Amino acid sequence: MLALALLTAAAMLAPATEVRRIAAPDANQGVASDGRFVYAVGNHVLARIEIASGKTVARWEGDAARFPHMNSCVVDGAALVCAASNYPDVPMASRIERFDARSLRHLGTQELASGDGSLTWAMRRDGGWYACFANYDGHGGTPGRDHSFTTLVRYDREWHAQAQWRFPASVLERMTPRSASGGSWGADGLLYVSGHDRPELYVMRVPAGGGILEHVATIPMPTGGQAIDWDPSGHRLLWSIERDGASLVESRIPAVR
Questions:
Q1: Which DSSP string do the residues of 94-163 spell out, in sequence order?
Q2: CA–CA distances in Å: residue 247 to residues 77, 189, 202, 217, 223
Q3: Of the candidates 108, 104, 120, which has an alpha carbon nearest to the alpha carbon of residue 69?
Q4: Of 16, 177, 183, 203, which sits with the fewest C-beta atoms within 10 Å of its C-beta?
Q5: Which residues lie across from 124 on neighbouring strands?
């Protein structure tokens, strides 16, 4: 009864509609898109794939000891900006890895201050950055903290923290015992978040100045969790991954009223 009460606080929308699939053996963590290409993200592997043909045009593979766990990426101008961590090691450590979006050449590493959790995604917005730090129950988690400590942090352009938000109980209950694996701002100003496993998308409103994210709606998805990204070339088209099928999946997301 508690789970039902938590979920009914937000609208359950019609399912997203699958548009296409692209085979991507390297996609076990997430996907990014620039409209013409998609980027398959693995722990220490990236692949740049042409959407029209499904052909891999560039690939990068790093040292697993140096790049143990890349969680997600986003295209930011000429760069591919990736959120990475040392999962499942503790204490948690997080960093930003930057790559040339065309060649996938590694450009540099930016260490982030520890303390909030394990960085799973980061995205530029409103002149700064929004970054999500996961926390977990058990394996990969910090003793004394569980998935309810998952946190969204806003930084300025120099990566100084300005505000933070916790996730609502209705979303945390759906993500337990894992955390928020993907997130991307919609053109409607709402934040769309995916968990680790469930085939669902959580739509949230971000209150000004910090606090608790507001759970607006839940959207059933054709794929499980992991990192997601909007396709900038199409109206309400979102990319996600199917880990079991090793594929990138484009879906049309219903409008949130």
A1: EEEEEEETTT--EEEEEEE-SSS-EEEEEEEETTEEEEEEE--SSTTPPTT--GGG-EEEEE-TT--EEE
A2: 25, 28, 22, 26, 10
A3: 120
A4: 177
A5: 129
For residues 245 and 255, give the distance between their C-alpha atoms in angstroms, rounded to a whole number.
Answer: 27
> Which amino acid, 95?
R
Helix (H, G, I), strand (E, B) or coil at 228: coil
Tens digits of residue pLDDT in 117-148: 899 999 999 999 999 999 888 776 777 787 88
Structure confidence by residue, pLDDT tens digits, 148-186: 889 999 999 999 999 999 999 999 999 888 888 999 999
Task: Give me the residues paired with residue 195 across strands.
Answer: none
Is 212:165 a contact under the CB 8 Å cutoff?
yes
Give me 171's structure tokens: 């979303």
List the structure tokens of 57: 């045009």
Instruction: Give the helix ranges, DSSP H, for the chain.
Output: 2-8, 169-175
Count helices and strands (H / E) in the chain: 2, 22
Query: Distance of alpha carbon 252 from its chain centroid, rounded?
Result: 17
Tokens 């076990």 sit on residue: 28
DSSP secondary-structure letter at 168? Answer: P
